[in-house]
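FIELD: query
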Amino acid sequence: MSSDKLNELVEVKESPVHGKGLFAKVNIKKDCLIGRIEGKEVTRDGPHVLWMEDGEKKFKVSNDLKFINHNKHANVAYYDDYTVMSIRSIKKGEELLHDYGEDWD
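FIELD: result
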């Protein structure tokens, strides 16, 4: 998916959850491909680093998908093929949230 398509769906804004967040610019249906994370594999943890494949790989995200914040009430999911999909309908203006699987709250 191109960054143009990603930019049609979402935008970065200040988040009430944490710092900056990613928000829906339009209503997004369940099971919609939001985008594909871009970046590179790294060896160390840090800001915007996802632990993929049960912690086997660490991937530093460089596109706007890095602004998806954590919440136990997730509406998107990262997959091992580096895609981000909606796991329920998301209303225009709603923040995209992923459950990192840790007790971050």
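FIELD: remark
The radius of gyration is 13 Å.
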